[in-house]
Amino acid sequence: MTNHALVGDSKTVAIVGGQFGDEGKGKFVALLATDWADFVVRGTGGANAGHTIYRGDQKFVCHLLPSGVASDKCDLVNVIGTGVAFDPVAARDELTQLGFAPNLLISHRARLVLPHHLLLDRIRECGKEEKPIGTTGRGIGPAYADHTARVGLVVNDLLNPDVLARKLRRNLEEKLTILRSYDPQIIRAILNHPDLGSGAYFNEHSLIDCDAVIESYGQFGRMFNDMIVDTDSLLQRAVGRKRILLEGAQAVLLSVACGIHPHVTSSDCSLNGLATGAGLDAAQIDTSLLVVKAPYMTRVGEGPLPTEFGGNQSADWCRSSEATAEREQAVIPTPTINDSDEFSQGIGFRIVGNEYGATTRRLRRTGWLDLPLLRYAVQFGGRNVVLTKLDVANGCNELKICDSYCYTGPNYHVGERLLRNGEQLSEAIPDRNVLEHCQPNYSCFPGWEAIPQDDNEPLPKPLEQYLSALRRGVDGINIVALSTGPHDTQTRFVGSSFSLYA
Ligand code: IMP
Fold first, then answer.
1. Of 349, 218, 252, which Cα lies nearest the Cα of 18?
2. Residue 8 and residue 37: Cα distance in Å, rounded?
3. Model confidence over 359-396: pLDDT tens digits?
4. In this structure, which of 74, 88, 182, 281 has its CB flanked by the most CB atoms within 10 Å?
5. Mind telling me the catalytic residues?
6. What distances in angstroms separate CA 42 from CA 245, 277, 339, 439, one per listed residue?
7. What is the distance in A from the centroid of ligand 1 to the CA of 273?
8. How many Å apart are CA 118 and CA 102, to the nearest integer?
9. What is the pLDDT of residues 230-258, one digit of tens each?
């Protein structure tokens, strides 16, 4: 197929998350992987993503592998690009789970995640010095930090045992100064986890058994030997000739480059980051699709979410260790998306939208769509927007859109500007000290009952009205498609993308 309803005759396409992750990017990646792409490339993040993909009736949850691995398209090539934090343990486990060998290539320059990266990530989240970020515990931050500090290892080191041993010893020596400030029993407990070698890397004396790590990572070198190549050159040669799909992980508002610190991940999830992570230049991308959940949005982990249903009550509940999918339904017996109590309404959206982490089942915090944040996000992910999860709001009597905020915090300097209590803000200032004190100003809209799947049937009037409000509210936004359910057929095309600068 040359032309595709979603991307026209574009050759290089990026799918970017427009909010805080979990927008439903996977469905569109899978759709294009099935009937369009020659390459599906992950260029950012690592095993911290959670993509649920299907092959026939079989369901797979991938964290690290590109979502194209389950595609039936036999000439499709899946690429783990240079910008990825590659964890060989996660890759091995996901390949085993698949039960067949997909076409998979791994960049020889991808950053290598090692057991002590997971250890450091998890130990910091125990909260000795600071408030936790609510990370996924997959070692992402420490692995990228090593890369930026120029002491990290890369996948290529797996192929060269001497280099692997030398770099690993040097890297670990540095980390031991930090690790020695912790109780060895905490270290032992964390290292007992299967993701960190089930205790095989713990040593009473040196805390981490460097020789054991060298030995098993040498084995990974042999295991992945045939897949490790120079993917940057391969993709550079393919640009303009082959159909390349860049699969975003996480999202713009979680990007280390433009997200809201410190509650971000450690890779650049923007369009630029996706390109660089695949060894390309953003100018080589023909079209980007920004995936945005509406009319509600979600966030997992810590950090500001100005429109959160029930505010702090919801944040506290989602953070609490007792909060599970089952328990919240017992606490609030019949939460619905029409509940007059906002906290319960948020639970209603979580239940109907199945907003629980793909593997951890962590509760995703829910809130109304936030236009100031969306106006900010389109600057880094493009203005072609795909709206997802619209069906979750079927039957909702009244929908709200946050158009602007009222700042209610103490006097605060943002560069040359001084924010004062009571100030109205039409834009989102990407600073937690501001966003934490932003009260949303809402516009209200009637809801819709159901969305017909047939493109020839008119959209419900209230939905048209809602889409018009979004077009008015975000300059230059081009709404390309509406997702009304998890299946490919549950997609309505309402515009054309076909150009990055729509
Ligand atoms: P890390 O990427 O594990 O370091 O986590 C940093 C922050 O990003 C935390 O708030 C995580 O909850 C969030 N995060 C990481 N991956 C995802 C994702 O795939 N979806 C949503 N949030 C994510």
1. 252
2. 12
3. 677 899 999 999 999 999 999 999 999 999 999 999 99
4. 88
5. 22, 51
6. 9, 8, 40, 36
7. 16
8. 27
9. 999 999 999 999 999 999 999 999 999 99
